[in-house]
Amino acid sequence: MKRSYYLIIFIFGISLSSFGQQRPQYTQYIFNNYLLNSALSGIENYTDFKAGYRKQWSGIEGSPQTTFASAHWSLGSDYLWKNPLSMPEKGDDPMSDNYMQNYTASPSHHGMGAMVVLDKIGPISRLDANLTYAYHLQLSGTLNLSVGAAVGITRIGLNVNELDLEDPNDPALNNTVTSQVKPDLGMGVWLYGARFFAGASVQQILPQKLAFTSDPNYKSGKEVPHTFITAGYKFFIDEGISAIPSVMVKYVNPAPLSVDANLKIAFKDRFWLGGSYRYNDSYSAMAGLNINKLINLTYSYDFTTSQLNKVSYGSHEIVLGLQLNNAYHILSTMRMW
Q1: CB neighbours of 169 closer than 8 A, spacing ≥ 6?
Q2: d(Cα 139, Cα 189) in Å, to the nearest integer?
Q3: Does the pLDDT of residue 300 top 80, yes or no?
Q4: Do 110 and 140 form a contact (C-beta atoms < 8 A)?
Q5: Among 14, 174, 179, 186, which residue's Cβ finds the most Cβ atoms within 10 Å?
């Protein structure tokens, strides 16, 4: 039984370090890129709070579950985009075509934020807690470039009570490492204007070893960097209807390159519909509603296209957003996404 126990630990360690991503997977990241890129800290004209839950591969016991909460805000007492030609009057649609034609970049400023992410896969849980900072530089009258960093800690735990062993008192459990805490560091850049955005970020920059046993023969696990590159552009179909296509490339060595294509269609920024395709993995349908100047709600469902579709019912993700200190009393002042 000791050999079978070590086989379980070895498989989990390898899956975390080599064949799959170690960070959670999201479908609605395009509407909260802050989760992936610290350079968005303080990009909005209000405090942007979001809380979400994702159930991946429903129908499979022990499949990934992710819960998160994030908030970020600009530093200083001045409102961003306070130029009257740039910011609309109270109640006006800030994402209209007319508004975009008068867009001006925000003044250079600082931003900060915080996020907590709890990810659980079978008996393994991961808790990430980070503080973030970004500086937004005004490059021109309509262009900003921000650079950000995230620092924090990661706690990885193993619940031995969820291991299916023939002998619950197996001596091999004496070597189990049930909890380990590691430092965490991430960095990112973000370029944005009236109609486009582009960014790149790296998470888990610091090399860290991972092991669930003190046996030196089974200490091959390690954390690896996660790289994200994304870009999008906004088109207007009509004065009140916009379309935002975007792409994201994710690289986690030695896993295969992951490529996403997304499309969001918004109707006067009151509600929106969207879709996403992740190469060789899934299709997604998304919808969102800006309930009022404070609250917005979004939901997505993933249709799995890999072999997992034979045992999985797809993935669900729901996100609640709050626009705190929304001084202009408008439905959404999100820059574009």
Answers
A1: none
A2: 14
A3: yes
A4: no
A5: 186
Over residues 304-320, the pLDDT tens digits come to 887 777 777 889 999 99
With tokens 């296209």, the residue in question is 305
What is the reported pLDDT for 255?
83
C-alpha to C-alpha distance for 87 and 89, rounded to whole angstroms: 7
Whose CA is closest to 35, among 170, 108, 128, 126? 128
Distance of CA 126 to the CA centre of its chain: 15
Q: Which SS3 state, helix, strand or coil, does residue 78 take?
A: coil
Considering the entire predicted model, what is its pTM?
A: 0.84
The Cα–Cα gap between 205 and 225 comes to 5
* Pick from 131-135, 169-173, 182-186, 189-193: least confident: 169-173
pLDDT tens for residues 88-102? 455 444 555 555 666
Name residue 284's beta-bridge partners: 276, 302
- Cα Rg for the chain, rounded, in angstroms? 21
| 3 state DSSP class of 34 | helix
What integer is the mean pLDDT of 284-299?
Answer: 91
Is there a contact between 126 and 273 (Cβ–Cβ < 8 Å)? no
pLDDT band per the 50, 70, 90 thresholds, residue 330: low
3-class SS letters over 125-190: EEEEEEEEEEEEEECCCCCEEEEEEEEEEEEEEECHHHCCCCCCCCHHHHHECCEEEEEEEEEEEE
Contact 29, 248 (CB under 8 A): yes
Distance CA 25, CA 60 (A): 16
The Cα 133–Cα 135 span in angstroms is 7
* Cβ contacts of 114 within 8 Å, gap of 6 or more: 70, 71, 72, 129, 130, 131, 132
Phi, psi of 174, rounded to the nearest 5 degrees: -65, -20
